[in-house]
Amino acid sequence: MNSDTKHILTELLADYKTISYSGAFDGAVLSAFAKKVEKDLSDNPKLNKKIFKIFVELAQNIALYSSDKVITDDKTNFNGFGIFIIREYAEKFQLISGNMAFREDAKIAQDKCVKINTLSREELRDYKRELRKRPAGQKGGGNIGLVQIVLTANNYVDNEIIEVDNHHSFLIFSVDIYKDDK
Amino acid sequence: MENIYIEGHHGTYYVPTVNFNAETGICQLEGESYLEDTLSFFTPLISWLEEFLKTQDKDLIFNFKLDYYNTSSSKSIVDIFSLLKKKKDRGKKIEVNWYYNSFSEDAEEEVEEVEDFMLETGLKINLVPYEE
């Protein structure tokens, strides 16, 4: 972890947290986190499943798109490095992901977030179908996960970019999942 | 033509159970799909379907019973539906059933997603509720 990431992480973790992780998003981490989220987070199975679905999409964003990569144990691949936090409040859970990204990619993600947050549910479904038709890996063509997050959470995705240097930004996504949402 | 059977499991990732039977023409995909490498998992399944539909003079029934799949898996599911739609339009007898737990906490969202698959690919998918 570089010093900028460490500083940002320290700030994000300064207040109350339920679960947090910083490091490489490899299979084992995803698995351990997913099991915790899916089974134990609350006594409401619907809420747990929602949080699990959103966690998977945010975590995969980090694993695939973080510009801060670490090589896997078997030396065959790279995993993205990032942070993940789940905070519980009286009325909601808040899921936050953060990772280093190339400035251009962070801007694309931010623009996509702005667009997604203005769409109605029907428009989101249309947009998801449109994105799914695009070939994998096309620049700006991904992020179906972000659309799915908004559909699942029934709430918008908050996004923040912290400029780190001339080439990198720290990209943060945050989404609130209300406990009484039907 | 050989059958495909993959036992589903929850390990580091979630692997769905695959049961493609060339003798009966019944294909099943069930469980949960959240994979390390989605393309590597689904590409052989799609190749098997292409081969079956090219060489076997049998009806094909495809039963989906997926409790959970991530967006990456959904792209591959759309690829399967697109292939089946193309072959159906060319005269192949293909029936696709999507089983969903009507008591599940997210049954409504699941139905919505299957409707989106139909809109996206033009393939008719029978929504079959079950209770568990």
Folded structure, characterized:
The complex is a heterodimer of chains A (182) and B (132). With 182 residues, chain A is an alpha+beta fold. Chain A has one domain. Chain A has six helices and six strands. Chain A has helices spanning 3-12, 27-40, 45-65, 103-117, 121-133, 144-153, and strands at residues 19-24, 69-71, 78-88, 92-102, 157-163, 168-178. In chain A, helix 2 (27-40) runs antiparallel to helix 3, helix 3 (45-65) packs antiparallel against helix 6 and helix 5 runs antiparallel to helix 6. In chain A, 36% of the residues are buried. Chain B has three helices and eight strands; from the N terminus they run βββββαβαβαβ. In chain B, strands 1-4-5-6-7-8 form a six-stranded mixed β-sheet, with helices on one face. In chain B, strands 2-3 form a two-stranded antiparallel sheet.
Record keyword descriptors for this entry.
heterodimer; A: 182 residues; alpha+beta; globular; B: 132 residues; alpha/beta; 6-stranded mixed β-sheet; 3 helices; 8 strands
How is the topology of this model organized?
The complex is a heterodimer of chains A (182) and B (132).
Chain A: H1 3-12, E1 19-24, H2 27-40, H3 45-65, E2 69-71, E3 78-88, E4 92-102, H4 103-117, H5 121-133, H6 144-153, E5 157-163, E6 168-178
Antiparallel strand pairs in A: 1-3, 2-3, 3-4, 4-6, 5-6
Chain B: E1 4-6, E2 9-10, E3 14-15, E4 17-21, E5 26-33, H1 38-55, E6 60-69, H2 71-89, E7 94-101, H3 107-121, E8 126-130
